[in-house]
Design a protein that fits this description.
about 140 residues, alpha/beta, 2,3-Dihydroxybiphenyl 1,2-Dioxygenase, domain 1, four-stranded mixed sheet, 2 helices, 8 strands, globular
Length: about 140
Amino acid sequence: MPNPSNLPPSVISHISIGTNDYPRARAFYDAVLGTLQIKQVMTHGESVAYGRAFPEFWVGRPLDGGLAAPSNGTHISFLANSPAEVDAFYTQALALGATSDGSPGLRPHYTPTYYAAFVRDLDGHKIEAMCFAKAAG
């Protein structure tokens, strides 16, 4: 059995979502993820990978050539460094055509300091930016 202290801190290697308009999706994610200090780190054909240090989030045309469609019940959450970044993510996403699925604010039903915003991207995928805000007091 592997030693847990030698395991990477994340359980996710990467996530990929499909788009029906690659240039539009790429421009959207360049701007929106930029608010969270996440940038393009790799491209491959009509797919682009984003991360801070390595490719963790991919957006591209479906490999099977079919139409991309969001999954019911699936959403992707990006770690922000502050509530201000969450707010900027939300504002930028809406300015670029995303729709609100939950404005920025505390979500005390998750934890008392969970601060998040939710949007639907240009293809209908539910994405979130979140951080743990400092507790009042």
